Amino acid sequence: MALIAVLVTAAIGILTNVVTDSFTWTAAVVLALLIVAAGVLAWLQTGTATRRSVRQRATRAGVIRRSPIRLRGAGEVSDRADRHGRIERSKVDNAGGRVERRASGGGVIDRSDIEID
User: Fold this and answer.
1) Helix (H) or strand (E) holding 115
2) Are 67 and 90 found together in one domain?
3) DSSP states along 42-105
4) How far is it, in rounded angstroms, from Cα 12 to Cα 3?
5) pLDDT digit string (tens) for 76-103?
6) Using CA atoms, how far apart are residues 90 and 80, in angstroms rounded to an integer?
7) Is the pLDDT of residue 11 over 90?
8) Angle of helix 25-46 relative to helix 2-21, nearest 10 degrees?
9) pTM for this one?
10) Same domain, 96 and 60
11) For 20-67, how does the pLDDT look when each residue is reduced to its tens digit (9 = 90+)?
12) Total domains, the chain
């Protein structure tokens, strides 16, 4: 897809030179179509980016124990235990969503598996 976008952009440059040198309606229409095609390709490429993020953080006497994370494809997972909070025996299997868990102030997340397909 990136190669096609580069070729379309190069064709736009060449046709711009042709149109400004000796104007013809055919060249102008082809130039307009190539500009539209370049815009569509740019829009399509924005959707192909994937964000992958996994964070596990235990602070201020917080505990995260036996809580595996499996991230398949794009997605985000964030586990945070602080101020004596605990996340235990809670696995996450994520195939493209966002999961955020937080145990704080003595709170406990125990045996709470999350699966997103």
Assistant:
1) strand 114-116
2) yes
3) HHHHHTT---EEEEEEEETT-EEES--EEE-SSEEEEEEEETT-EEES--EEESS-EEEEEEET
4) 14
5) 999 999 999 999 999 999 988 899 999 9
6) 13
7) no
8) 160
9) 0.57
10) yes
11) 888 788 888 888 888 888 888 887 776 655 678 999 999 999 999 999
12) 2
Pairing type for strands 52-59 and 98-104 reads unpaired
> From the CB of residue 95, how many other CB atoms can be counted at a distance below 10 Å?
13
- At position 94, the amino acid (one-letter code) is N
Q: Are residue 106 and residue 88 in the same domain, yes or no?
A: yes
Beta carbons of 101 and 109 less than 8 angstroms apart: yes
Range of the domain at 106: 52-116
Same domain (yes/no): 42, 11: yes
The single-letter code of the amino acid at 69 is I
Q: Which two tokens stand for residue 96?
A: 């493209």
Q: Could you tell me if 21 and 36 lie in one domain?
A: yes
pLDDT of residue 47: 60
In which residue are the tokens 């996450």 written?
92
